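Slide 14.
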Amino acid sequence: MTQTEPNAESTLIAIVEDDPEIRALVTGLLEREGFEAAACANAADLDRLVERRRVDLAVLDIMLPGEDGLSLCRRLRARGDTPVLMVTARGDDIDRIIGLEVGADDYLPKPFNPRELVARVRAILRRTRDVHRATQPMPQREVFVFAGWRLDAASRDLTDPGGRPVELTGAEFDLLVTFLRRPQRVLNRDQLLDWTRGRSAMPYDRTIDVQLSRLRRKLGGADLVRTVRGGGYLFAAPVERG
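Slide 15: predicted structure.
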């Protein structure tokens, strides 16, 4: 295991899937990879689990009996920052976009390649391990100040010019930090995908556009991230780093 890989043995992944065969398949797959996996048939099962344990990642099926995956993802985001991998059997892109809008870190359409599922799980855990695993060492403190805003990269605390906290999902945080480390420089979509999602990115992946739209809204609609025609995106404000 390399230093960049999450420690599977201390990582709990919840699989929320109503189909017993798929639930058993995914649970067994992740356990063979060395993760601790908890099978949940519905939202109520997950609620009971999170009352007892810290969940490091939730793999949510959209189509669930009772409360669906989108509603469950929204609740998880409202009460904490548990990373979410959304799984959908629907081919319509609108479901994936809505999943990202409500805070999912990534999505995977069914039927999926088991290796791709594991790769996406590992990619999400690598991006979020400093926040969701207390056993990880604290990253070096890095503070960004821009246009009255302040982001503490170690604690992931973002405050607006009025000092009010603004909550970011893991994917939004990764995207913002990517811009803040490279201000006033044009970044194309492929670069953003590589720096925020790494090997889990797929060709023609449009999730960056969705996440960027959400990030712009959370930044108050300010013209901080500009679209450069034919080039990509540019973080326009000067950035001071502490």
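Speaker note: Confidence is low (pLDDT under 50) at residues 1-6, 131-139, 199-204.
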